[in-house]
Specification:
Length: about 425
Amino acid sequence: MDERVRILTVIAACACMLGVYAGSAQGASGVQYGIQDDAWLEFGPGKLSDRVAKLDRLGIDVVRVTLNWHRAEPSEGGYSWARADRLLSALRARGLEPVVTLWGTPGWANGGASPNVAPLRGEDFQRFAQAAAQRYPFVSKWIMWNEPNKPIWLKPASAKTYVSQILNPGYLAIKAVNPRARVAGGVTGPRAGKGGVSPVDFIRAMDGAGARLDVYAHHPYPVFPGDTPFEGGCVCETLTMASLERLLLFVGRAFPSARIWLTEYAYQTNPPDVFGVSPNDQARFVGEAARRVYLAPKVDMLIHYLYRDEPEISRFQSGLETVQGVAKPALAATMLPLAQIARRGIKTSVWGQVRPGDGPQRYVLQRLSGGRWVGVGGAVLTDRRGYLQRTVSAPKGARVRLWYPVLRLASPTLVVR
C-alpha cells in the first residue's frame, strides 16, 4: 500500500469516528488540556500561588514545566532543586498535574558547550533523570528534551544522537524509579527549519535508532498561511494540526503502541504580531483545536503555549493575555471551548466543553436575537468531563455562545458558517 493510500485510509477512519461521535459527547473523554508558560509561571506578577490559582480557574488538567538540567546540576553530582521544588509543589498543592520536560546540558557534561549541545555520555543524563524522578515521585509524565529536530534546541539535530544520549537513557532512568510513569520522546517541531530535520525524517530515524518511549510528543504549530486546526497543511514532511492524520500515520508506523501528546500549540495574534491572526480567530481556533484532538485516536494531550504574551515582539505573542495582562477572547475560549461541527439549513451542530468545575456542569446555549442573548433549549448538563454536543436552530450568520451560569461566564461568540 503506497503512502497516499495509507493517508486516505487514516482520514477515512477519522471520518468514521466523527460519525460515531456525532450523537454523543463521550468521544476522547480522557484527553488532557493544559498550558505552558515557564517564564510567566516563575516570574509573572504577584505571588506564585496567585498565578497557579489563575491557571486552576481555567479548568485545565496539566501544566508543562521545563526542568533545566544545566541549572539543576551545575556541577557534576551537585544538585540545585530550589526552582523546581517551588514550581512543582505549587502546582501539586492546587491539584494541577505537572508534565515535566528535561532539557539543557550543563557545561561539565558536554565539554563546556551551550545547553543545546548534546551530552557526551548518555550515562550523565540518565543519572540526572533518575535523580529528578526520585525527587518528584508525584510526577508521572516526563518529556525527554524539546524539539531535538532543530539545532536551536539540540546540536547535532540528529535522531541517533538524541536516542542514544538522551531519550533511551532518560527512559531507562524514569522507569527504574517509577515503572508506571509515562515517558515521551520526539517532542518535534512541525518543520525542519534552518539546519534541522523534518519531523517525518526524525520519526523514521528514531525508529531506526531503536528509540524507547511510551508517548510520541509533537508541536503541530500552524506554519502555512490560512492554516486552521482542520484545514490547510500539506502532503509533505511538515506536520501541523491541519495534517494531524499524517502524524498519526507516521508515528503509528514507527511506534505502533505509542500514544501521542501535542505538548505545544498556539496561534499568535495581530495585534501585536503582524503575521498573527485576529484575537477572535485565535479564540475560534482554541475551540476547533480542542475538538480536533477530542476526535483523534491515540491523542491524549493538547497544551497551549503561553498564558501571557512575551514582551519582545520577535518572540511568541500567543498568550491568553496581552503583555499588559489584558484578557484576549482566547482566555474565555480556553475555559469554554466551542466549535461548529456542521450546518444543514437552519440546523447547526456544535461541540464544546465546560472546563471549570468537576463532574457534569449546567450550561445554556444562547443565540443572539434582537440584540439580546436568548437561551436555546434551556439549561442542560454536560457529561462528567464537561463535554457537550447539541444541534440547535441557527442558520448561517447566526451568533451562538456557551453560557456558564456558575461563573456568569460566556464563551466567545461563534458565528455560524
